[in-house]
Design a protein that fits this description.
14 helices, 15% strand, 13 strands
Length: 366
């Protein structure tokens, strides 16, 4: 039953909402999933159509070509890079591969860090941040808890809070605890302004640094399941000892190879996405400013955590918003949050303003 809960505990279900309110599922707008609101760039869809034959043959067993492309783009040696079936594969493999006994998780955050530890009988301790600091982690507390820990998970920017830990603070922890492996999940970093200055993916100075990078979120291709892990040679070898051949399917490899074979297309798409997000977050925040009963937290990503400060609780709030065919994330099942919290993942302006109107109406009648 516990494993079953781990699988279903990730958030919104469009079909369930459609069934509940009695409408076709394609009328539901999913604002619960953290994916690029611009959708995949046109060239990605072209590559998929042109490479359907890739499913008729076995792909490269170690996804070497896409590893090499990622490494070249970031100025890394390819043997420090592993390609996986999304970053989730790495999260669940790391406690086993590194033979961890204890872990610390900077939270509230993505549930799979804790679930991965539980799967491998690794004791985990949450280092929670709260609304009084805007959910920015307490580095001194994290420093204390990291002492003697085998693993530390830091999602940067964090899901669901959108907060960023400054690069210098992570480097401080890396230096302070050389025998502790720090897993820095940068899955949402491409959405943040100044991402290149914040990222640790190309930093080769720390043997205890592991960086996770996702292609799924920024390129909106979660169904292809693609992600990367970057680590020292020694750590990469330990992880590869648990690697299964053909972990990345042929179609996914073809798409990622194309992207890194055309690096001139990557940064313009990133910049277009960031500009879009900044503009839409500003409009959405302004639309909800001064609303009694709702506190909206700053976010470096394209989703916003919100706190219900009145009598409404998250389950009823999400159900009421769902009547408008808008699916949002109930954050009650995040360790470190409660039924006071929900998350909005933004779309294009018309939908965002539709959500803002719905939020104000539900709170007014709540």
């Amino acid at each position: 039953k516990e494993n079953e809960f781990m699988i279903i505990g990730h958030g919104g279900n469009k079909q369930a909402l459609a069934d509940r309110i009695g409408c076709p599922v394609d009328e539901i707008v999913d604002m619960s999933s953290n994916l690029n609101p611009l959708g995949p760039p046109d060239f990605v869809e072209d590559v998929i159509r042109n490479n359907l034959a890739a499913v008729q043959s076995l792909p490269e067993p170690d996804a070497w070509s896409m590893r090499r492309g990622f490494a070249q783009f970031h100025g890394l040696a390819a043997d420090r890079v592993i390609a996986g079936n999304g970053t989730t594969w790495f999260i669940y493999t790391l406690p086993l591969a590194l033979e961890a006994k204890t872990a610390v998780i900077a939270g509230p955050t993505y549930s799979d860090y804790k679930d991965a530890c539980r799967m491998h009988n690794v004791g985990s301790t949450l280092c929670p941040a709260g609304p009084d600091t805007g959910f920015v982690p307490d580095i001194d507390r994290l420093d204390t808890l990291s002492d003697g820990a085998d693993l530390v998970f830091i999602c940067n920017p964090n899901n669901p809070t959108g907060t960023l830990v400054e690069k210098e603070k992570i480097e401080y922890l890396l230096r302070r605890h050389p025998d502790t492996a720090f897993v820095v999940d940068e899955s949402y970093l491409p959405f943040a302004e100044g991402a290149d200055e914040i990222s640790l993916v190309s930093d080769e100075r720390y043997g205890n640094l592991i960086v996770l990078s996702s292609m799924s979120k920024i390129f909106r291709i979660p169904g292809l399941r693609t992600g990367f892990l970057t680590a020292s040679d020694a750590v990469a070898r330990r992880i590869m000892a648990h690697y299964q051949p053909w972990s990345v399917n042929g179609l996914a490899q073809a798409v990622i190879r194309y992207i890194f074979d055309h690096p001139e297309k990557i940064e313009p798409f990133y910049q277009e996405t960031r500009s879009f997000i900044q503009a839409e977050k500003a409009v959405f925040t302004e639309a909800l400013s001064g609303v009694d009963g709702l506190e909206l937290f700053d976010s470096a990503a394209y989703f916003n955590l919100a706190r219900l400060t009145g009598a409404l609780r998250s389950e009823d709030f999400c159900a009421a918003i769902g009547q408008e065919k808008l699916l949002i994330r109930d954050c009650a099942n995040f360790d470190g949050l409660s039924d006071e919290y929900v998350r909005f993942s933004l779309k294009e302006r018309e939908i965002n303003l539709r959500l803002a109107r719905a939020v104000k109406e539900v709170i007014r009648h709540g």
